[in-house]
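Internal ticket #5521
Category: modeling
Description: The requester needs a full-assembly model to guide mutagenesis choices. All entity lines are attached below as received. Residue total reported by intake: 286.
Assigned to: D.W.
Attached entities:
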Amino acid sequence: MPERRLISFTVGGFRFAAPIEAVREVVNITSIVAVPGARRPLEGILPYRDNLVLPVFSLLDLLGARHDEPGNLVVVTGPKDDPVGFRVQGMGGVMVIGDKDEIVPYEGGLRSPGEEIKGVLKKTGGELILLEMDRLFEH
Amino acid sequence: MADRVVIVRIGTHLVSVPFGQIDEILGTDRINSIEDLPEGVVQEGSSSQASSRHWVYSRGTWLPVKALIPGTGVSSSSQIVVARWEGTGKAFVVDQVLGIETPGKTAPFPERARPFTDIPIAGIHFWKKGIVLELDLSRLISLDLGN
């Protein structure tokens, strides 16, 4: 397995890791603008750079789990002209994984119909759910 | 120059409607209950019309007053906005009309968010008092909103 750089974050007690190139930036927020009549997983919108509006989604809702714990960080992903955000509770560090790292199939309760979850990375200090963020809107 | 819009507050939301598409803004004293309507106004078999308790008479037409956002009720301080698109009117209740403004920066509503809201929003204005959601009137007229 070629070396990959991952960034980790926590949402609702789950620890995730995603390829660092999939994360455009992490934004500190005070509130999200609610959209009238919005249904989950949409949490709201935020003014964003370049006259864009960032839709903010619940990551766990997209993975089939209900989650109401607010966070004040938004992970921004997606194309420059069509970004999307996910609210998270905390950011971990950047890590490099390679051949020596053990990745096992995910067998937890989150849904992954589009292979959004690639597996579980076993690291010293705990497990991280490996996420392919660009697959989150394909199903 | 951007067109003028009327900005209204519905609950905690700020919503704009193009000024040119607003027929009237009415007080709740203009509301009639369904029992007081002239015979034949409510079309037989129209469950949508029959479910509307409040009606207003605007420019020769009786219009059911709808809630743009589910759960919005009519109170003594509410106002009714009558908007028109290609000849068809729509009356909806708002909590407060905040004023007529010429919005500055406008951004499109993100396409990824559209499947997750029933309210037709065309874009976003960045106003001094907050983010304003610009109603898409052409889609609003075609929607059968709740009461």
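Resolution: model delivered.
Comment from assignee: Chain A has one helix and eleven strands.
Ticket closed.
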